[in-house]
Design goal:
With 471 residues, this protein is of the alpha+beta class. The chain has eleven helices and 16 strands. A hairpin with a 5-residue loop joins strand 6 and strand 7. Helix 2 (48-60) crosses helix 7, helix 4 (231-243) packs across helix 7 (272-283) and helix 8 crosses helix 11 (453-464). The chain is globular.
Length: 471
């Protein structure tokens, strides 16, 4: 074994890559061996340090053609889709592959964080896109990489919110059946309202008034538009779109009838355990924090700015905190669909107790004992443009059924470290992106502009105190 990770020798969790031979230390492959998901799950907590360390290594490694990178015969589509003609180039700034390492686009100011405008990626509508070779927004959408810090906490919040919404729906259906009358159900979780639904005595449900979430009531916390349910789904899509690495759980023989769907010459390029290593690394990234050692004038301004942030209505969407009942992160996730490994498809899942990590000691708890996660988001989708304020409406295509001018409320924790701003990274300054808010946020934007210049500056001072700390 050429490397050790954390306190665990990966002899326990690594399996030889299919068709490979033992290589020397100079080998260019990242995947000389794969992580064995079942072995990690069986080992329990003792395997987690090694799994997380392996995930960090994968996140920082540059994948090669010997690893299966490139997808020469396939597109970046979520549904396995062959190219109609020709062979994909090794790299493409448009339909990809557009990078060789995760850290290329998630490293500022530390591994797992964000990136400058130069690292922008182009994404398609999602499901069955062909290769595209244009920046025309009718065919592709340009996105600035978001920070991934605290991603495990974000997913846990979304899971609990989904469970609440679905329980409210099911209870409404039960009441309608018992009463033989229609029942209106308010969909509220963690203080966030997702519209309402009407349950009928026959078990059918009217979903016209559901707001900010899909009809299946799954809160999807990842991507700018909130279309990815879990870190696992996010990782599988990123591996394929950006590196041309196809995870066997989606592109392998079960779903495509092939061990090498993309024609890379490397069968089953990314094993379920490899995906889990990346998930474990991302899930345990510490959340952003508040800048320490502020000069007295900044500290005073930030304190006043937090008050104005609340008063003008910014916190109606950018919720200062959301309560979280449990810090137990399970992989696979509970709400993923076909093409992403699910709990019923494994003998035993991997469990990571985030409460054991150092950052958990910094989290405050409410009177119920629930952890207060300083996310500054409601994890809900909103319309962000209107006829007068439309700067955030540069996209012309829907993505996975989410309309073109609808976006998930971005987390503001760490915003002081993640310039430029906006889903495309169009705005260099916080004031600029605040003024660009229209649609559902128009009232808060207008109230912000009604503040004096000095008061607006204190809001900026507050936001700039929310930072991602590099180790």
């Amino acid at each position: 074994m050429r490397k050790r990770y954390g306190g665990l020798a990966l002899a326990l969790v690594l399996m030889t890559a299919a068709g490979s031979v033992e290589a020397g230390s100079w080998d260019e492959r990242v995947f000389a061996s794969h992580v064995d998901f079942d072995a990690v799950a069986a080992a329990g907590a003792s395997a987690l340090p090694g799994l997380i360390a392996r995930g960090r290594t994968l996140f920082q490694s540059k994948f090669t053609t010997a690893d299966g990178a490139g997808r020469p015969r396939a597109t970046q589509a979520i549904v396995p889709t062959h190219r109609r003609f020709g062979v994909n180039p090794a790299f493409s700034r448009l339909s990809g592959p557009d990078s060789s390492a995760c850290v290329s686009c998630h490293s500022d100011p530390t591994v797992g964080a964000a990136a400058d405008f130069a690292a922008n990626a182009f994404v398609s509508e999602g499901f069955e896109s062909a290769a595209f070779d244009t920046t025309d927004p009718s065919f592709s959408s340009e996105r600035n990489p978001p920070a991934l810090m605290g991603a495990g906490l974000t997913e846990l919040l979304a899971r609990e919110m989904t469970a609440d919404l679905r329980a409210e729906r099911d209870a409404g259906i039960a009441r309608a059946r018992a009463s033989h009358q229609d029942v209106e159900v308010d969909l509220v979780t963690k203080g966030v309202r997702f519209g309402s639904l009407k349950a009928h005595p026959d078990g059918l449900v009217d979903l016209d008034a559901v707001d900010g979430v899909d009809a299946d009531l799954i809160v999807r916390p990842f991507s700018r538009k909130g279309v990815f349910t879990s870190l696992r789904q996010f990782v599988i899509n990123a591996l394929n779109a950006h590196f041309g690495l196809e995870a066997s759980e989606r592109f392998g023989v079960r779903w495509t009838g092939s061990h090498d769907f993309d024609g890379s010459g490397v069968p089953d390029a990314a094993a379920p355990g490899d995906v889990s290593a990346l998930v474990a690394f991302l899930a345990t990234l510490p959340p952003p924090t508040v800048k320490t050692g502020l000069p007295p004038d900044w500290r005073a301004a930030a304190t006043e700015g937090e008050t104005h942030f609340e008063q003008v209505g910014c916190a109606s969407c950018h919720r200062t905190t959301l309560p979280l009942k449990s810090l137990l992160f399970t992989d696979p996730a509970p709400y993923d669909m076909a093409g992403t490994l699910r709990a019923g498809e494994v003998r035993k899942g991997i469990v990571i107790d985030l409460s054991k990590l150092p950052f958990a000691a910094r989290l405050k708890r409410d009177a119920k004992g629930e952890w207060l996660i300083p996310l500054f988001s409601d994890l809900k989708r909103h319309v962000v443009v209107d006829a007068e304020v439309s700067a955030l409406g540069n996209e012309l295509q829907a993505q996975r059924f989410v309309e073109r001018d609808v976006f998930r409320t971005p987390q503001l924790w760490g915003v002081g470290s993640t310039a430029p701003y906006g889903h495309r990274g169009d705005f260099r300054m916080l004031n600029e992106v605040i003024v660009a808010h229209g649609g559902d946020a128009r009232f808060a934007r207008d109230a912000y502009l009604d503040l004096t210049k000095t008061q607006r500056d204190t809001v900026i001072a507050f936001l700039r105190s929310l930072v991602i700390e590099a180790p």
